[in-house]
Amino acid sequence: MELRQLKYFVRAAELLNFTKAADELFITQSTLSHQIKELETKLKSQLFDRIGKRVKLTEAGKLFLDHARKTIRTSEEGLLVLRDLDNQKTGSVCIGATYGMTELLISTLAEFGKEFPDIQIQIVFGSTDDLLQKISLYQIDCMLSFLPVSSKNELLEITALFSSRLSLIVHRSHSWSNLNKISLQKITTLPLALPSSGYSIRISLDNILCKNALKLNIKIETNDIHSLLELTNTQQWSTILMNSSLFGYPELKAIPLEGKTMMREATIAFPKEVYRKKALISFYECVQQQCKMFRERFD
């Protein structure tokens, strides 16, 4: 079988739409259908059920999809090994990050860019769940997030970077802005704008609220952290985020929430058993250097 056919199959399986897959692959739909049919013939297994214009994976297709991805990844790793042997400081690095890691990411890239000016860098922001899906599909090389080291994920290598604390974010004109810390009980009547339930920070907060039998006065929910900071900046609402999320808003103040359970680990995760190119190793080294400053501020 050809590597090209595997790539065609994987994209068609991910989209479950031959027309869209063909467009993304810059081929005609008839070419895609023909190549997948050839692959099925070689495998002696039907990979897709075709129902009119709709397609879905067969049981064989579902089983083969993971193997196809691994084969493609192995081939790409071989090219990376050869490039690294030539010591070429070129290529690309794709980094996934949650918004709370923005400041660390930017300060790291500033140093990384000096050493590797010819490396193409792609940054993908998303929730922890979004990034976990992307890293499992090898769409990103690593992820910066608050995924705990203790997470039971056998496919990832997770390393702690620094600790951050859940904090009440208020405008500096707020009467509480001079506080050094605050209890969760005290803010139950405060009008809040919070991250949507899909975000790991919200899941963590909801678990703490449940254990303490507390309920917050939630007025707005959104899946965009930047919008939460903008809403807080209007002085009509406050929000609860990690104190490391307060980046680029000097008019806002982070007041740490009291309690040991309010601390969370910032981490970097790599897929296990995947070749780690030199540029990615250098990026990780830059992250570790920058984290010395963050540990002094947040730990």
Overall 3D shape: globular
User: Helix tally?
Assistant: 9
- Measured between the Cα atoms of the first and last residue, the distance is 52 Å
Low-confidence stretches: none
Secondary structure category = alpha/beta
Portion of residues within helices: 40-55%
Q: For the report, how would you describe the main beta sheet?
A: 7 strands, mixed
Q: Please, what is the average pLDDT?
A: 89
Binned strand content: 15-25%
Radius of gyration: 23 Å
Question: From N to C, what is the helix and strand string?
Answer: HHHEEHEHEHEEEHEHEEEH
Tell me the number of strands: 11
Characterize the structure shown.
This protein has 299 residues and is of the alpha/beta class. It is built from nine helices and eleven strands. It has helices spanning 3-15, 18-25, 29-43, 59-85, 102-115, 128-136, 200-211, 225-233, 278-298, and strands at residues 48-51, 54-57, 92-97, 120-125, 142-145, 156-171, 192-195, 218-222, 239-242, 252-256, 263-271. Strands 3, 4, 5, 6, 9, 10 and 11 form a seven-stranded mixed β-sheet that branches. Helix 1 packs across helix 2 (18-25) and helix 5 (102-115) crosses helix 9. The termini are far apart. The model has no long low-confidence stretch (mean pLDDT 89).
List the keywords.
299 residues, alpha/beta, two-stranded antiparallel sheet, 9 helices
